[in-house]
Amino acid sequence: MGRSSLDLYAIEVGAAFPDIRSFAAYVGGSPTNICVGAQRLGLKTALLTAVGEDPVGDFVLQFLRKEGVDTSFIPRKVGRRTSAVVLGIEPPDRFPLVFYRDNCADVALTIDDVLAAPAESCRIFEFAGTNLSQEPCRSATLFAAECAHAAGAQVVFDVDFRPDQWHDARAFGQNVRAALSLVDVVIGTQDELNAANLDEVHLVHLTHQQVSDARVRGDVGAAIDRLLRLGPSVVIEKRGRDGARAHLVSGEVVDAPGYPVEVQNILGAGDAFAAGFIYGQHKGWSWRKSMRLGNACGALVVTRHGCANFMPTLPEVRAFVAGRGGL
Q: How many domains does the chain have?
C-alpha cells in the first residue's frame, strides 16, 4: 500500500540535470516497485494505491496489469492527479530526483478504500513511511496495518524516508513510532533508522533543513534497540554494498553479505531488496536467506536503468547468484 507514479529517467547517464535532453518513461513509487518485484519473483500481489482520472493513471494501470499485479482495488480519484517523478543519473553517487506530488491521488486513499481491499486476507502487508506524511492516507494506512495485523498477516514497514514529502521532516519520527505496534518487520538504511528514532530530545538541536538534508547521525544500534522495544520482531538494516543485517528482538544479529556489482543507478535498489526479502519470508526462508535474495535483487537492479520495469525474475536471480556463492 502506498504511492505510485510515472517515473521519467534521464537517458543521458552521467549528464548534469540541466543538460538532460531526453527521458525514458517507467512506473515507480516504493510500494509499487516492491509489488511488481514480488510479482516477478512469483508471488501473487495486489496493490492499494490511487491514480487520477488522467492518461498518466492509464499508463500506470496498464503496466501493472501487464505485470500481473491485481489492480482491482486501485481507485481513481476525481480532481486528483497521478503523481510523477523526474530523475537524473550521475554515477557513482549523484542521483537527483524531483517529486511532483501536489494534489496527487495516492495521498487521498481513505479507510473506505482499505475496506474495499483484501487487507484482512493477505499473507504479507507492506507499507511505506511516506504513506504517513499526509491525511487521509495516514489514517487509512494505519487502519490497513491494524486489519492485517489482527488477521495474522506479517506486516512489513519500509521506512522510506523522503524528507521533502513532509511539511516538517522533524515530524517523521513521531509518525513512524506511532505505527510500530502494528509492525512485525522494519526495513531501512542507517540514515532512515536514525531518522525514525528522532524525538524531542534530538529535535531541539536540529532544524527542519538539517533533517531534510539527511544530516541525521547517531548510534544506529541504539536507534534499532529503541525501535524494537516499540513492537517489531526484527529490524532489517540495509547496508549498501555490505549487504543487510537483521536485528532480532531476542538480541540475535544475522548478517547477509551483499553481491559486488558495478553500479549504474542506485534508485530502486532498496525496493528490489524488499521484494526479494518478502518473497523469502513468504516461502518460510531464514532471515539470512531472505536477505540474501533481497541483496541479489538489489544488486541486479543497480546495474539497470530504472525501478519497477527492471525488477528481476527468480530465474534471473538464480543465474546471477550461481557463480557468486548462491543464496
A: 1
**Amino acid sitting at position 216:** V
Whole-angstrom distance, CA of residue 140 vs CA of residue 248: 28
CA 12 to chain centre: 26
CA gap 166, 118 in Å, rounded: 28
- Which of these, 195, 102, 112, lies nearest to 147 by C-alpha position? 112
CA distance 282 to 207: 41
Radius of gyration of the chain (CA): 18
Per-residue model confidence (pLDDT) at position 207: 58
Q: What pTM was estimated for this model as a whole? A: 0.94
> Taking Cα atoms as reference points, which of 143, 136, 238, 218 lies closest to residue 173?
218
Is 16 within the bounds of a domain? no
- CATH code for the domain in which residue 272 is found: 3.40.1190.20
DSSP 165: G
Does residue 130 form part of some domain?
A: yes
Give the three cell numbers for residue 107. 495521498
pLDDT digits (tens, 9 = 90+) for 237-282: 999 989 999 999 999 999 999 999 998 888 899 999 999 999 999 9
Q: Residue 186's beta-bridge partner residues? A: 157, 235
Name the pLDDT band for 200 (thresholds 50, 70, 90): very low
pLDDT number for residue 206: 57
Q: Grid coordinates standing for 248?
A: 532480532
Instruction: Confirm whether 14 is domain-assigned.
Output: no
Task: Label residue 211 by pLDDT band (50, 70, 90).
Answer: low
Q: Cα separation of 260 and 321, whole Å?
A: 11
DSSP 271-289: HHHHHHHHHHHHTT--HHH
Domain of 170, in residue numbers:
33-42+107-322
101: in domain: no
Distance, in Å, from the CA atom of 10 to the CA atom of 7, rounded to the nearest integer, reads 10
Q: pLDDT band at residue 183, thresholds of 50, 70 and 90?
A: very high
User: Any bridge partners for residue 70, and if so which?
Assistant: 46
Q: How far is CA 327 from CA 58, 197, 259, 319, in A?
A: 38, 32, 10, 11
Cis omega (within 30 of 0) for bond into 92: yes
